């Protein structure tokens, strides 16, 4: 950068020169909208790298030997050694990590130990199924949560508010597997209304797929709605005590109009964050639900290969889960920045 005194630093409208290129000073300071977004992306990339180290280290310290597990206890030492060389397990861990992470960044997730198939090709339909289930669950959970949160504030202190509070606390307290088995017992076994297993394939129509995933979708909706309802209610109540809301009340505006037109837009930031966290959970935390309903998603795929000690598949699933979780949180941060005038116009 060209030499200059601190008090001579160019204003935001001016530009600084670095290695022959010109950059807005506001971007370099990180106070502009683009700077804030860039910092979120950079932090997400660093976090993903750190998680990749933990995932790789975790799979390396597991008890037992992968080659022995693949060949069985009766395998000869020479056969085990040959498998280790074939899989590259004799190389230093740092070298194997660098190769694995470098390939993963380029989209190459390696090959499965159990069937030697390309993991990226095998995992694509599973990831698609998991995202589909999460999207359908979110399509129901988000509107229900916002509606219940608004109703709870609209009738704050009444029996309706207390009923919603009890219902949300109950759903938050119940583990997913318990909810899943209750739904199976009622809808599948007792009344035969819905299938107990969510087996889907490409030949199914859209309606058949929706019927097949109805129970796991209901389980996920029940699991995440309570958190979003409570955050929506808390955020709206905090905004409703603001001076400008009191001014609107003094003008005689209806409570529902104040709530929807004045309070809700200003309470969105924390609500967006909790929605993003729950969306991430719908993708990352569905392992138990997928196993219970035999749903062919990422969670079921990972559990199947954990039992086979298929390390590359477990690593790939863990990295994808982490990337989705971080990505959704970055999107939430960007939306919060875009919807918050103080952040959008900072600097």
TrEMBL record:
Q: Name one GO biological process term.
A: transmembrane transport
Alphabetically ordered keywords of this record: Cell membrane, Membrane, Plasmid, Transmembrane, Transmembrane helix, Transport
GO cellular component terms, A-Z: plasma membrane
The record ties this protein, via Gene3D superfamilies, to: MetI-like (1.10.3720.10)
Q: Does the keyword Metal-binding apply?
A: no
The main place the protein resides is: membrane
Report if keyword Cell membrane is assigned: yes
Ranges where the ABC transmembrane type-1 domain occurs:
127-332
Per the UniProt record, which residue ranges are transmembrane?
41-62, 131-157, 164-189, 209-229, 271-293, 313-338
Q: How does it sit in the membrane?
A: Multi-pass membrane protein
Q: Which CDD domains match?
A: TM_PBP2 (cd06261)
- Cellular location(s): Cell inner membrane; Cell membrane
InterPro entries, A to Z: BPD_transp_1_N, MetI-like, MetI-like_sf
Entry's family note: Belongs to the binding-protein-dependent transport system permease family.
List the PANTHER family hit by this protein, alphabetically.
DIPEPTIDE TRANSPORT SYSTEM PERMEASE PROTEIN DPPB-RELATED
What is the protein name for this chain? Binding-protein-dependent transport system inner membrane component family protein
Q: Which organism is it from?
A: Ochrobactrum quorumnocens
């Amino acid at each position: 950068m060209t030499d200059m005194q601190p008090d001579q630093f160019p204003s935001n409208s001016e530009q600084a020169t670095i290695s022959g290129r010109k950059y807005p000073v506001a971007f370099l300071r990180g106070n502009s909208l683009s700077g804030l977004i860039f910092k979120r992306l950079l932090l997400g990339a660093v976090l993903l790298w750190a998680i990749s180290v933990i995932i790789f280290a975790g799979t390396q310290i597991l008890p037992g030997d992968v080659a022995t597990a693949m060949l069985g206890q009766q395998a000869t030492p020479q056969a085990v050694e040959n498998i280790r060389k074939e899989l590259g397990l004799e190389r230093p861990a740092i070298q194997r990590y660098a190769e694995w992470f470098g390939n993963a960044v380029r989209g190459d997730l390696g090959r499965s130990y159990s069937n030697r198939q390309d993991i990226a090709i095998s995992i694509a339909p599973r990831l698609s199924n998991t995202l589909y289930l999460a999207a359908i669950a979110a399509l129901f959970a988000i509107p229900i949560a916002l509606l219940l949160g608004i109703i709870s504030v609209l009738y704050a202190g009444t029996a309706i508010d207390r009923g919603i509070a009890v219902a949300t606390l109950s759903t938050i307290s119940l583990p997913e597997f318990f909810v899943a088995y209750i739904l199976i017992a009622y809808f599948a076994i007792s009344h035969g209304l819905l299938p107990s297993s969510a087996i889907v394939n490409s030949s199914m129509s859209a309606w058949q797929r929706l019927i097949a995933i109805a129970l796991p979708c209901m389980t996920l909706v029940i699991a995440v709605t309570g958190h979003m309802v409570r955050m929506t209610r808390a955020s709206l109540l905090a905004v409703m005590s603001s001076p400008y809301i009191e001014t609107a009340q003094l003008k005689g505006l209806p409570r529902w109009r104040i709530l929807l037109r004045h309070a809700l837009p200003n309470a969105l930031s924390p609500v967006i964050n909790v929605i993003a966290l729950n969306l991430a959970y719908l993708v990352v935390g569905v392992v138990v639900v997928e196993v219970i309903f035999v749903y062919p998603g990422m969670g079921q795929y990972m559990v199947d290969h954990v039992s086979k000690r298929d390390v590359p598949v477990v690593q790939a699933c863990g990295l994808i889960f982490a990337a989705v979780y971080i990505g959704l949180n970055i999107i939430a941060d960007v939306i919060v920045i875009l919807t918050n005038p103080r952040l959008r116009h900072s600097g």
